[in-house]
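Task card 7
Instruction: Convert sequence to structure tokens.
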Amino acid sequence: MDQQLLAFVTVADEQSFTRAAEKLHISQPAISQHIQALEQRLDIKLLDRTNKYVRLNKAGEVAYHHAREILSLYSHMTRLIQDLKEEASGTLAIGASFTFGEYVLPHIIARFRSQYPKIDPTITIANTHTVVEQVSRGELDIGIVEGHAGHEGSVEVTAFAEDTVVVVASSTHPLASVSRATAAELERECWIVREQGSGTREVTDRVFQEFGIHPRAMIEYGSTQVIKESVEAGLGITLLSTWAIRKELTCQTLKAIPFAERPITRQFSMVQRKSDFYPKSIQLFTEFLIEESPKLQNIGQV
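Output:
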């Protein structure tokens, strides 16, 4: 691996020579030497440095973008070659949107690890937009997202599971006792919703449009857990996956409000960066995920 590029990217990420040296377990003078050598190779300064900050300049921004790409490709190459020499092992960087990542993925990982103990997954939880961005840049090996993935030119998207979403209110909310809520009743409520870029927000907006619901008020949160706590406290109502509320339904702190005549569903998809070759760890995980997909509905049942 090009140590100069690695040092440069780490300094840019950490915005500090000292922290970069600590992260790479080398001395600060060695970090400085790597940066100076890279700048000499490219015949241009890449960083603006003062006693208070270290920042990328215009040339540095260009170099940083391509350096990350080069390091990612090098890592991908070494993993593929390693696969030819021995059984699958090493790290597997998985990104997942909040619903799947927090409520389903832990069950998947536990079963996967029991079969492939030499593969060490690292998990990143973020909204759909962020996960797809990181997959497209090679920062994640695979993403699991709901809703529209985007980045059609740089990633492959494979649907593998279906999820049901329901209108949710506190068990003491007046709507908890109705046989079926109307659109007029729902739009009089304050809706607690996820942020833009979230797959849950995407399906919520789709439901609003499909059923002509215009909420009188909305509160936006970046966390499903905070939304559940807010709804339980009586702040408003929301739309969530049955995977996300299975425990609350069991404990009867939240109630699914009958609304639509048919179930409201959405698809979950695997997102991978386009490539002719994938490391064995990625192949095994995608195959395992597809095999496990018929069992996923049981996670949301109470």
